[in-house]
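Milestone 3.1: sequence recovery, worked example.
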């Protein structure tokens, strides 16, 4: 049985019951840029029952982080950014951030935040749905997750920069830096320097004006798994009213379909140059830097710390790749010893909060993405 047929059959089985997985898309490609499989199944929304299209747009949330890291490395190549220099000259407000390490007392950090801190999630920022302390803070100031307000990226640091790996909003600050150094908004930068060279037409952070016809007409619905296990439609977390977007999230703001997202991965598999369009988005040395293991030995254990379910409707409690050796790079999580399921020691991956997952493997030359649009994250049917 051909891979396409096999995966279509398997995905159809997973999506046959809308209370299991209402709808999903899977895309796989090789280093040559050839599609290995592209399947869709289920419905775009349990409300409309419209079939899920293979090119359906999804809010890919933290899958955005890789694209922002690429943009950052482009500016490093050009000498416009330095990875290990303090960033407060570019974003003074980040230089004013205070630390609340759990005592309830704010203090000035002893260490100045650098791009490396931000790209590796060691700057001290956190997400409110993973960190109870930050969750309490956002409740006090009335900031809602993914509302695209400036409030959502200005919480006190939860640790001294450079002393702890804490997954959070740091990549949203990287995008602020990109905008100020490049003199253009994030979406325009992405389009000119990454998307257009790769022939990508439907990836954007702007839900109304970013693409022809707007995102909403093509956007898959978001779904919520209730405590009883049943699926229901739920409003999107990300801000869809463009007039209310104060911050274009470099950490969570993109809408995309799987096939186009994987064009970026294909370019990376080829050391920065896409085999079909011949466009170079990064130099080979920058791709190496993008996926180099970055955490010092004393911080690696933080990757085995559970992600807490501070907001259970948004994420389940989980440990990433539990029991498997892992590291963190500018581009995402890496598996330096490989994984029994076939990932090599040269693979990288990450995910988005609505159960979207991408991976790429430099050794096998394969990349892929699965899109589901289900909350909370780490859904038991998507990640069995």
């Amino acid at each position: 049985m051909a891979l396409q047929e096999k995966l279509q059959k398997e995905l159809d089985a997973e999506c046959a019951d809308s209370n299991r997985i209402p709808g999903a898309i899977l895309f796989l490609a090789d280093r040559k840029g050839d599609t290995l499989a592209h399947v869709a199944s289920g419905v775009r929304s349990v409300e409309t029952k419209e079939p899920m299209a293979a090119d359906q747009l999804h809010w890919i949330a933290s899958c955005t982080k890789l694209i922002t890291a690429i943009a950052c490395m482009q500016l490093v190549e050009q000498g416009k950014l330095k990875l290990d220099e303090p960033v407060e000259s570019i974003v003074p407000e980040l230089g004013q951030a205070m630390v609340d390490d759990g005592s309830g007392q704010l203090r000035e950090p002893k260490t100045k935040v650098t791009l490396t801190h931000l790209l590796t999630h060691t700057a001290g920022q956190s997400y409110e749905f993973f960190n109870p302390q930050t969750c309490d803070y956002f409740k006090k100031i009335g900031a809602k997750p993914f509302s695209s307000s400036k409030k959502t990226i200005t919480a006190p640091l939860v640790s001294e920069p450079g002393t702890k790996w804490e997954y959070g909003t740091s990549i949203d600050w990287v995008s602020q830096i990109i905008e100020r150094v490049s003199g253009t908004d994030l979406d325009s930068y992405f389009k000119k320097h990454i998307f257009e060279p790769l022939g990508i037409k439907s990836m954007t952070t702007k839900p109304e004006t970013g693409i022809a016809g707007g995102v909403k007409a093509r956007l898959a619905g978001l779904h919520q798994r209730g405590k009883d296990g049943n699926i229901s439609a739920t409003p999107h977390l990300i801000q869809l009213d463009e007039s209310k977007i104060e911050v274009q999230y470099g950490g969570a703001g993109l809408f995309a379909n799987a096939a186009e997202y994987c064009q970026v991965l294909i370019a990376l598999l080829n050391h920065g140059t896409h085999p079909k369009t011949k466009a170079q988005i990064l130099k080979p040395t920058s791709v190496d830097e993008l996926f180099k293991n970055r955490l010092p030995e004393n911080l690696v254990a933080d990757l085995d710390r559970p992600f807490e379910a501070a907001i259970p409707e948004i994420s389940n409690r989980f440990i990433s790749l539990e029991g498997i050796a892992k590291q963190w790079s500018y581009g995402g999580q890496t598996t330096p010893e490989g994984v029994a399921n076939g990932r090599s020691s040269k693979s990288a991956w990450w995910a988005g909060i609505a159960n979207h997952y991408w991976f790429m493997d430099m050794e096998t030359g394969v990349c892929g993405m699965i899109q589901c649009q289900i909350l909370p994250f780490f859904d038991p049917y998507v990640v069995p």
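The longest strand covers residues 23-30. The chain has one domain: 3-350+364-375.
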